[in-house]
From TrEMBL:
CDD domains: TM_PBP2. Belongs to the binding-protein-dependent transport system permease family. Pfam families: BPD_transp_1. The chain crosses the membrane at residues 20-42, 54-77, 185-208. This is Amino acid ABC transporter permease. PROSITE patterns: ABC_TM1 (PS50928). Residues 19-208 form the ABC transmembrane type-1 domain. The keyword Ion transport does not apply. It is found in: Cell membrane. It comes from Neobacillus piezotolerans. It is a multi-pass membrane protein. Keywords: Amino-acid transport, Cell membrane, Membrane, Transmembrane, Transmembrane helix, Transport.
């Protein structure tokens, strides 16, 4: 094991460049999937005729597919129909599609967890359906959704490593290039990979705990 050689300035710089791509891809996918997943989850909760059923089929289909297959589809299959995406865009699209389906189910379940009596009381007091969702249901549901949503975001961050199969220059990809240079670099690279992923995910877990306490 050559920790000194593995952790040279150039290697660490290359790793952090990859880590920047990891955070960029994960950050954009998190924002997009939260917006799309929130819209889908709310639409399914509202049970809009036809729309809700179509969305349910789409969500269940995506949730039961491997993320790796979706990544392959966005990068290798879409060009077959004339839509070629850059590798970073393809990774973001694949992660957004998969995570939107996962988050929509979390959001729908969170909304369904609110007691029907509160909804009926709000409606009887004169609030419209949209107002009831906005002011009564959603604030309470969000408190309950924080832990599973953050857990899903943590999974998304780790799942960016799967984009190594399409040569996205993210953290794992760059680490592979480094430890491919010398056998003694393998363990040092795996150690620093574990440390970097753990640090970010642990900070997200702490943030989730603080949000729960603040909302309590």
């Amino acid at each position: 094991m050559d920790f000194i050689g593995a952790y040279s300035f150039d290697h660490l710089k290359f790793l952090f460049q990859g880590f920047g791509i990891t955070l960029l891809v994960a950050g954009i996918a998190i924002i997009c999937s939260f917006i799309i997943g929130g819209a889908i989850g709310t639409a399914r909760y509202a049970k809009i005729p036809a729309v809700s059923q179509v969305l349910a089929v789409g969500v269940e289909t995506i949730r039961n597919l491997p993320l790796l297959l979706i990544i392959f589809f966005t990068y290798f299959a879409l060009p077959e129909v004339g839509l070629k995406l850059p590798v970073t865009t393809a990774a973001i699209v694949a992660l957004t599609i998969f995570e939107s389906a996962m988050l929509s189910e979390i959001i729908r379940s969170g909304l369904n967890s609110i007691e029907k009596g509160q909804i009926e009381a709000a409606r009887s007091s004169g609030l419209g359906y949209v107002q009831t969702i906005r002011y009564i249901v959603m604030p309470q549901a969000l408190r309950r959704m924080v832990p599973p949503i953050v857990s899903q975001f943590i999974s998304l961050l780790k799942d960016t490593s799967l984009a190594v199969v399409i040569s996205l220059p993210e953290l794992t990809h760059n680490a592979q290039i480094i430890y491919g240079q010398k056998d003694g670099y393998v363990i040092p690279m795996l150690v620093i990979l574990a440390f970097m992923y753990f640090t970010v995910n642990y900070l997200l877990s702490i943030l989730a705990g603080k949000l729960e306490l603040k909302k309590a």
